[in-house]
Write the structure tokens for this entry.
Amino acid sequence: MCNKVEGVHVPDGFLDAPTSVATGVLAAGTVALALRKAREELDERTAPLAGLTAAFVFAVQMMNFPVGAGTSGHLIGGALTAVLVGPWTAVLCMTVVLLVQAVLFADGGLTALGTNVTLMALVAVGVGYGLFRLVVAVLPRTRTGVLVGAGVGAFASVPLSALAFVALFAAGGVADISLGAVAATMGGIHVLIGLGEAAITVAVLGAVLAARPDLVHGAAHLRDAGTLLRRPEVVASR
Amino acid sequence: MGAGHGGALSARYVAGTSPVHRLAPQVKLVAVLAYALVVVATPVHAGWAPWAYAGYLLAVLTVAAVARVRPARLLRSLVVEIPFVVFALLLPFVTRGPRVEVLGLSLSESGLQTGGALLAKATLSVLAATVLATTTEPRALLRGLERLRLPAALVQILGFMIRYVDVVSGELHRMRVARESRAFDGRRRGALRVLGAAAGALFIRSYERGERVHLAMLSRGYSGRLPGGPAAAVPPREWAAGLALPLVAGVVLATGMLLG
């Protein structure tokens, strides 16, 4: 069962038609671009690898992680996926997960799919990966640098996509609420969720870096520096 | 594919031979989307809106009855709404505008309307989507999306996800059994590190499985495209039958607009 209460998806009827259409167009454009760019990240292996990564994201979103102070949290996973397999592939993975949740689980409205893709695939992945790159460029080229960058990206991706939602709500929300109150509440709650997201992201990424650093897209610069060995190519031998 | 393996996806589908089960998947997808559009397009503050919601509800429940979807299943599907129920219940308290007294509480009039409308619209769409998921196999949905011209690359990714999500969830489940049979306690210090390692291992296994699947496909002549069977044309009558739901909803909406 997938009864998640934290990864809230926008349902049908929450934003007005022009806003839904605008985010739909934005989402479609992003996905179209990501389909082309992901080929550069994964070449012709895109379909199986992105599909399996999406299955991983879907499964891991159901895990309960203890994130300190006796509370548990769930992973949303935009930033983690971007660091693991690259931002464009991550956009595709998150989009596919949202599509499955909307069509098979009625989680997130069909007419709000564009909005959800914009928030969770475009904003969360974009912010998460952008900040990751920034932090990694500043810090020394070590594994700790990668982990700190991923943590910062994961943390910021959550409140910023919540604020993006508030912005959409300001443009096309159907309820007349004081925007300051919405922004403060959403921002406050999501800063806490973001801390959990960062903790989980660092824990998972640390595990992958320890076992298979060659798989981590965001740690490619460590490989080039010679700190890590490249995965040996499979050579057909006779 | 049974639900016995804890398969999250295939468990949504209940096999059957009702007319709704037999409709082409693309027809059902278009019908549910069009129905949701009509529901969303209903003006929130119109006086006749509650009657329209009742009409939509009757329409979707009729389809559910024809499809023999159990009421318990429909009710359970509404669980995804819970966060929004909370939000909708808050709206009357936080919305600005004129106030009315209800049971001694000062509530916003427009907040009551908006909260009720949000709840009604979300519920109706969830019901329609649940009928879709209960009567259509995930693989058939995939075919439907393909017929509706979803980009082929996205259809392939979606296909691999649907095919392997139960396998990946199964691995996660086995890891949990292994953890808990070794007296793992999620509340103890260091639990996050253990769970992080489990999720990390799951990623590695999933990714490596993807590589193996790709090699297996190459050895069977994969060239970037998946061959699909010829598309059977959907007769106009089937479209008409499938689109009855949004059409009825559209008539309800139009009647409300004209008379209200």
